[in-house]
Amino acid sequence: MSFAPGRTVLYRNVDGPRIACVRPCRVISDDERGLLLWLPRGSAVVVEQAVDGRNIRDMPFAEWIRLEHENVVETWRGPGLLKFVPPGGDHSVWFFRDDAGTFQNWYVNLEYGALRWDDGTIAGIDVIDQDLDIVVHPDRSWEWKDEAEFGERLSHPDHYWVRDERTVWAEGRRLLKIIEAGEFPFDGNHSRRMKGQGQRQLGPWPGLGVSDGLHHATRHDTLNLILTWPFSRPVGRKQIPSGRMDTLGTREAPSNSERDAIPEVTAPQPHAGPRPQTLTQSPGANYRGR
């Protein structure tokens, strides 16, 4: 399955039986090298938060899993973001730039390999974020990101969607060799393409004729449609339980019995490579996830 350039697709991050975030992106290209997506500044996005307004990064994970959650519409406030999704591998590569359009850094988002779907009116890719990331600077020096959060969440296996820590580290260390060698997509090719992308904002509901300015009732109904669009599909090597919900509303933290059936995936022993010193912060390094 391939997506035509110019089409808007939904990049959906799934946490077990819940939608964690939805970002509408415009397809720049889709070929044998992978899928290249553009998220303009100001685009409407869907994020999951606790009913008290805090998000998963605002509290310990042990507290997050005890709370009720809801999905809300927010605005992508960062500069335009280019996302590259390879046809193989458990990751995507994001290209951050500053407000002037100058490339700042790569951001390797480790995630279970994306599964594409196209239901005619709506299309997109579903991923499961693995939380551990790599920030890569223009000189290809790098640093791990969110190690502490990754470790904290692994200590709650009944609630965490990452089942095998080893595969995540193995994928990250595999990519470090590509990064240090300056191989695609860390060769600067896509970095130069960022300046050619426009800033037209995208609404979160492509193909449904719903704009960001519609009244609350219409926004609620359409947002509910996006969130309840069936996603009982395998993502990478995991099978996501059905995500259909009857209403948008609020939802209690889910039961995790469905996740217990997900098999672990073995991986080679991770390569123990040197760890660099922390470098100057950049837009990607400051990115706080969903």
Structure, explained:
It contains 6 helices and 12 strands. The chain is an alpha+beta fold and 290 residues long. The chain has one domain (8-286): FomD-like (FomD barrel-like fold, Beta Barrel). Strands 1-2-3-6-7-8-9 form a 7-stranded mixed β-barrel. A two-stranded antiparallel ribbon has the order 11-12. A hairpin with a 5-residue loop joins strand 7 (91-97) and strand 8 (103-118). The two termini are 27 Å apart.
Quick overview:
The chain is of the alpha+beta class and 290 residues long.
Fraction of helical residues: 10-25%
Tally of domains: 1
Q: What is the mean predicted local confidence, pLDDT?
A: 73
β-strand percent reads 25-35%
Characterize the largest beta sheet: strand count, sense, and whether it forms a barrel: 7 strands, mixed, barrel
Shape: globular
How is the CATH topology named?
FomD barrel-like fold
Output the helix-strand order.
EEEEHEEEEEEHHHHEEH
The helix count comes to 6
Estimated radius of gyration: 18 Å
Query: Mind telling me the CATH superfamily name?
Result: FomD-like
Low-confidence stretches: 201-222, 231-283
CATH class: Mainly Beta
List keywords for this structure.
alpha+beta; two-stranded antiparallel ribbon
Secondary structure layout plus pairing:
Blueprint: E1 8-15, E2 18-31, E3 34-39, E4 44-50, H1 61-64, E5 69-75, E6 81-85, E7 91-97, E8 103-118, E9 123-136, E10 142-145, H2 147-154, H3 165-181, H4 189-193, H5 216-228, E11 234-235, E12 238-239, H6 283-286
Parallel strand pairs: 1-9
Antiparallel strand pairs: 1-2, 2-3, 2-4, 3-6, 4-5, 6-7, 7-8, 8-9, 9-10, 11-12
